[in-house]
Write a structure and sequence with these properties.
Strand content: 5-15%
Order of helices and strands: EHHEHHEHEHEHEHEHHEH
Helix content: 40-55%
CATH architecture: Alpha-Beta Barrel
Distance between the termini: 33 Å
Strand order of the largest sheet: 1-2-3-4-5-6-7-8
Number of strands: 8
CATH topology: TIM Barrel
CATH class: Alpha Beta
Number of domains: 1
Number of helices: 11
CATH superfamily: Homocysteine-binding-like domain
Shape: globular
Radius of gyration: 18 Å
């Protein structure tokens, strides 16, 4: 069975795609209800699992068509203890959900992987609180204690890396990296930023990356930016400084709206997929090590197809 970890194949030059806005696709396109934005809850029955399987297949087919690699990101962004408790999951049931999420990805890889399209299985973590606000401040030790359980569950199930998405501040990121180091699994840290390119905590992105690297001896395998439109952060990537080399992934929003506006919106703003693809191609010119590209809120397979088209021409 194929396994990846040391080194992760996306740490080389080959381009890897990943998926789009899972939760917004399920809610706005499929009309599903996702309490607490928790897609992992669909794994509780065969119908939900089959829907997730179809969701992934659209993106896998794009990677196969264009000869890119693919990062299979698990549906476990909300499958941590606090969120699981809010959804009525016992610890045992939540552990099974994390394991089933990885098993789904393993089956997809076994069915689809080729030599030209390696597929890496990522265990996805979300913030303990609201990703749009630094509203649940923890020390790095508290964050490590909180996230250690899910990181261990995902690693034991077969995840090859941990990707923490939509993080609003640095202490939680440091804790996630340290908990991943304790388990021996690579960690990827993805910060979200506001329309001014700063984290919801107010910290500049450059300072956040430096703070996590300093506290963990450059522990993250790499960094990402997610849940922000390219126009929100492209201006801060113009300086050509060395810290930009640590950013290897982008999962951008389709909409130019702020987090506050998106939170209040009852309709889907899916932007212009073709322009979205061009915007992410431009980011590859600013970020020398950018190899992982996908979408976040408002995006679907059309946006990732546009990325593939823009980046293979």
């Amino acid at each position: 069975m194929t396994t990846y970890q040391h080194p992760l194949p996306q740490s080389a030059e080959k381009l890897f795609l990943t998926d789009g806005g899972l939760e917004t696709t399920l809610i706005f396109h499929d009309g599903l209800e996702l309490p607490c934005f928790a897609a992992f809850d669909l794994l509780k029955d065969d119908t939900g699992t089959a829907r997730l399987n179809r969701y992934y297949r659209q993106y896998i087919d794009l990677a196969l068509e264009h000869g890119f690699g693919f990062v299979l990101e698990s549906v476990t962004w909300r499958a941590s203890p606090d969120w699981g408790e809010r959804l009525g999951y016992s610890e045992a049931a939540l552990s099974r959900a994390n394991a089933r999420a990885i098993e789904l990805l393993q089956a997809l890889r076994e069915q689809s992987e080729t030599g030209e399209t390696p597929m890496v299985i990522s265990g996805n973590l979300g913030p303990r609180g609201d990703g749009y606000a630094a509203d649940r401040h923890m020390t790095s030790d508290e964050a490590a204690d909180y996230h250690a359980w899910q990181i261990k569950s995902l690693a034991e199930a077969g995840a090859e890396l941990i990707t923490a998405l939509t993080l609003p501040e640095t202490e939680e990121a440091i804790g996630i990296v340290r908990a991943s180091q304790a388990v021996g699994i690579p960690a990827v840290i993805s910060f979200t930023v506001e329309t001014d390119g700063r984290l919801p905590s107010g910290q500049p992105l450059q300072g956040a990356i430096r703070a996590v690297d300093d506290a963990t001896d450059k522990g993250p395998a790499y960094y990402m930016i997610n849940c922000a439109h390219p126009t929100h952060f492209e201006p801060i990537l113009q300086n050509g400084q060395a810290w930009l080399e640590r950013i290897r992934g982008i999962r951008a929003n389709a909409s130019c709206k702020s987090h506050a506006e998106l939170d209040e919106s009852e309709t889907l703003d899916d932007g212009d997929p073709k322009e979205f693809g061009k915007q992410l191609r431009r980011l590859r010119e600013l970020l020398p090590n950018l190899t992982v590209l996908g979408g976040c809120c408002g995006t679907d397979h059309r946006h990732v197809a546009a990325i593939a088209q823009a980046c293979c021409s």
